Structure formats: C-alpha cells, structure tokens
Amino acid sequence: MTRCLLVLVIILAGLVIASLALGDVALSRQDLWETLTGSHDRTSRNAMIVFDLRLPRVLLAALVGAALATAGTITLAIMRNPLAEPGVLGINSGAAVAVMAVIVLLQDPPALLPPVAGFAGAAAMAAAVFLLSWRGGTSSLRIILTGIGLGSLAGAATTFLSAFGDIGDVQRAMIWLAGSVYDASLAKVRFLFLWLVIPLALAWMASRELDLIRFGDDTAKSFGQPVDRTRGLMIVLCTLISGAAVAAAGLIGFVGLVAPHVAGRLVGPSHARILPVAALCGAILVVAADLLGRLVIAPVQIPAGIVTGLIGAPFFASLLWKRRHARG
User: Fold this and answer.
1) Cβ atoms within 10 Å, residue 307
2) Cβ neighbours for 254, distance < 8 A, ≥ 6 positions apart
3) Which of 131, 272, 282, 316 is most buried, taking the most CB atoms under 10 A from its CB?
C-alpha cells in the first residue's frame, strides 16, 4: 500500500505542477520555480497568475476530488451496490434545485448564497430520502428507490425553473450545475479544508464499521453492529462531505463512483486502505479534469464536471456490462 500511495502522490504532484505552469500564459520551469520560491527575479505578473489564479484552483480541485471520492466510498459500502454514488442519497438533485431556485427566483443574490443553498438543499434531500425510506429500520434498496424517486421530482423542479426563468439567470445556474472550480479562492480553499478535516478523519476511523456493513445487515448484526444507527450516521457523514464539495464546485459527477472502484482494485477490500487511496484518486481525477478542460480548446474552458462525465460514463457502462455477464 505504501508504494501505491507514493505513486499516487507523485502523479498528483506532477498534475499540480502542470496546472500551475500551463494555461493561457505558459510559465517555464525557471519562471515557476522563481515564483514559488519567492525569488527576487520573479515578476508580479507571474506571482499573480500562480498565487491568485492557478494555485487556489488546483487546491480546490484536489479537495473537492478527495471529498467526492470519500463520500462515494461510504455510499458504496452502506448501499452494497457497485453502481451507487452520493447522488443516490439525493445530494446532487437537492443541491441543483436549491441553487436553481436561488439564482432564478431572487434578484441579484449575494455571491455566498448559492453555495449555502446548495449545501442546504443537499442536506435536506438526504434527510428526506432517509426518513421516507424508514420502515421500522432502513435498507439499502429502499434508500436507493426513494433516492431515485425524489431525485426525479427535484429534477422536474429544476427543469421547470430553467424553462420559465430569465435566460441570463438560467445560464448562470447551468454554469454552476456543470461543475467547475474556476471561481476558486484561497478563502474558499481554507474554509473547505477546515470543514472537511473532521468528517474525513471520522470516515477513516469508521473503516471497520464500513467493512462490516458491506457484508449485509444480518452479518453486521451478528457481530454486534447497530446497523440502522450506523447507516444513518454514515449518511450524515456522507452528506457533510459531499454536500460541502458540491457547494464549493457544483455538480462534478462520477468521481464518487470511479475513484472507490479504482482504489479497491489497487489495494483490496479493506476500507482502512481504500479510503486514503480513493481520496488521492479523486483528487487526481478532478485536478486532471480541470487541467484538460483549460487546455483542450483554449482559451475556451470546459467545466471539470463535463470532463469527468466524459470519463465516468464509459466507466459506468463497463460496470453495467460486468454485472450483466456476472449474473449470466
């Protein structure tokens, strides 16, 4: 596992350096080194590009990727479904309808209101999914079906708002929904980091509980695990992590599905190993997606959520294919 972590850290470091150096204004290795080390030879233009524009963006992308991957790992364990991801809990749909409502219905909302509304919508929808799926206890199947139903309802509300809202407001909302870290700042990075420290640590500390619940309710109960309470607490933890990531960067899809599966193949089924590896894989995926989105058709920038969708859709199809043939 140590070697795997080292390789992933090296890959992530390489992507970070590339993200700092490449863009509309490319920086040479010497320029980048002088800027990062605070050399007297650095220029104010290069310092502005690196520290004000690119560094906050790459740090936010890494944090968001790690958060989405961790939330996806938790979701896969408690749902025991290889196709599950945080969107099953209503997090994405709740955030989408809340942000669309704020941008379309309010005149010139404060800049901080859409992210706050996104987190509130994600939390409210996750709570509704859990409560409506409660029948003297919880089950992964009821949660998934309830999440699909409420997600469809929220999707209809989002479509309604976009159909009758002002075209300018709808366009701004759709940019947020596409998922991007273009408006990153060091203040946002600092806030997201401080928010995620405790939930991510709790997720790693709960790795044994995730190992147990993954084997099924009956097996987990035979080992003394309070399954319903554990599943509820894990959903709260997942909402805190994924909801914060969605509030910070919009809807960046498939990271919570791809990263845990890649981590499982690299280090095996133990969540004590999967969680840190998945976090690194998620960070790599979002940082790479943001970098590709900036470079492929520059100066036009493709939102990171669109790039991860292009990567994740074939991965999702391959999972469906494997499940179909495994049952056959």
Assistant:
1) 23
2) 85, 308, 309, 311, 312, 313, 315, 316
3) 282
- What is the per-residue pLDDT across 71-129, written as a single tens digit (0 to 9) for each? 999 988 888 777 778 877 778 888 888 888 888 888 777 877 888 888 888 888 888 88
Domain count of the fold of the chain: 1
Span 207-239, pLDDT tens digits: 888 888 887 777 777 877 787 788 888 888 888
Locus of tokens 């991860």: 308
| 8 Å CB contact between 122 and 247 | yes
Give me the CATH number covering residue 16: 1.10.3470.10
Residue type, 248: A
Structural domain range at position 148: 2-327
φ/ψ of residue 274, rounded to 5:
-65, -45
| Model pLDDT for residues 5-22, shown as the tens digit of each residue | 899 999 999 999 999 988
Phi/psi for 302 (5° steps) reads: -90, 130
Return the top range by mean pLDDT from 37-51, 84-98, 165-179, 199-213: 199-213
Contact 285, 259 (CB under 8 A): yes
Alpha helices in the chain (DSSP H): 2-21, 29-37, 44-47, 55-79, 91-105, 113-132, 140-164, 167-178, 186-205, 207-213, 217-222, 227-249, 255-267, 271-295, 304-327
Residues in the chain: 328
Candidates 256, 247, 239; CA nearest to 191 is 247
Predicted local distance difference test score (pLDDT) of residue 324: 59
Would you place residue 291 in the very low, low, confident or very high pLDDT band (cuts 50, 70, 90)? very high
pTM attached to this predicted model: 0.89
Q: Are 287 and 15 in contact (CB under 8 A)?
A: yes
Q: How far is CA 23 from CA 36, 197, 291, 295, in A?
A: 17, 30, 8, 7
Distance, CA of 48 to CA of 255 (rounded, Å): 30
